[in-house]
Amino acid sequence: MAQEKAVTVRELVDELGLNIFNAGADLTRRITTVDINRPGLALAGYFRHHPAERIQLLGRTELSFLAVMDPREQARRLFALCSYEQTPCIVVSRGQQPPDVLLEEATARGLPVIGTAMVTTRAASVISTFLEARLAPETLIHGVLVDVYGIGILITGSSGIGKSETGLELIKRGHRLVADDAVIIRQVGEDTLVGSAPPLLRYLLEIRGLGVLNAMTLFGAGAVRTHKKVSMVIHLEAWRDDVAYDRLGIDEHTQRILGVDLPAVTIPVRPGRNLAVIVEVAAMNYRLKRMGYHAALEFTEQLRRAIDEHDDL
Asked: Were both Cys, which of 17, 37, 121, 142 would link to 54 (CB 3.0–4.6 Å)?
C-alpha cells in the first residue's frame, strides 16, 4: 500500500516564512490534507464533526470572539480545540498575537501555533496552494514530455522506439523539453495533470550512441522548461503489417492517468517517417479540435453529402 503523502509543519513554516509563537512545539506533525478550517463553530462550543485533521486558521473574527468571551469559557473552548492529537497546527493571521491561554494549552500538548502577517483569506489561499502542490497525487511514467506549440505532449513507447530522438528533433525545431525518460505526473486539479522531470534528470536527454546530453547547455534556456500541463499522449509503437491503423482519425481514443482521461493517439514507427513533424501536426490538430474544427468529421460529412447527391441523380 502506498504511503500517505504528507508535509510537516516545519516544511510549511520554512517554505512560507511563517513565525512560531511556541518554540518548543512539535514541528514534525504531519499535514495530510489541503483543506483549512476556521474553527468558529468549535470556539462557540460545537465540536461535533470538527475537522481536527486540518490546519486551524484563526483570523480577526475568531480572536475578537475569544476576546469578549468569559475567561473560564474561553479556557474550556481552547482546551478542547488543542486537545486533538491529529491537529497539525494553529495559524494566526494578520500579525495578531494569540491569547496567552491558547499558547499555554497548545504548548502543553506540543501543538504549534504559527503566525503570519497576511490577511486571513490570503493566508488560506497561499497555504492551500502550497499544500496542493506538495500533496497532489502523482505517478512516474516512462516517456518524454515536450511543449509543442504550447501543447504539453507526453510521448510514450517501448524502450528504443525513438522517444528521446523525437524529443531532440523537436528541440532543434524550436520546441521545448520538459522531461526525458522519467516524467513525474501530478494531478493539480480535478482534470489537470502537470508533468515535470525528477530533479536529478532535469534538462537531460539520453541519446543512444551519444550518451547523456544537457538540452539547456546545448540549445539555451529557451529550449527547456521545468513543468508543463499534459494535454495529450502520443504512443509510439513498431509498425506491424497485420494491424489496421486508423487512417481517418474519426475515433477518439483516450489514456487514463491518475483518473484523468487524456486524448491519445498511436503512431506506428518505421524507417522514413518523420516523427517530429507528425508530433507537430498532432499538436496543431489538437488545437484545431479545441477550437471546434475536426478535419476528419468535416471530411466524412463532405463525403456523405457527395454520396447523397450521387444517389439523387
From this structure: 37
- Parallel, antiparallel or unpaired: strands 176-189 and 138-148: antiparallel
Domains 7-135 and 138-298 share a fold: no
Is residue 159 a known part of a binding site? yes
**pLDDT tens digits, one per residue of 27-63:** 999 999 999 999 999 999 999 999 999 999 999 999 9
CATH code of domain 138-298? 3.40.50.300
Is the domain spanning 7-135 CATH 3.40.1010.10? The answer is no
Clarify whether 163 is annotated catalytic.
yes
Q: Tell me, yes or no, if 109 is annotated catalytic.
A: no
163 is in an annotated binding site: yes
pTM value surpassing 0.85: no
Query: For residues 115 and 138, what is the distance between their CA atoms, to the nearest angstrom?
Result: 31
For residue 164, say whether it is annotated as part of any ligand binding site: yes
How many C-beta atoms surround the C-beta of residue 189 within 10 A?
12
Q: Of the residues 5, 60, 122, 142, which is catalytic?
A: 142
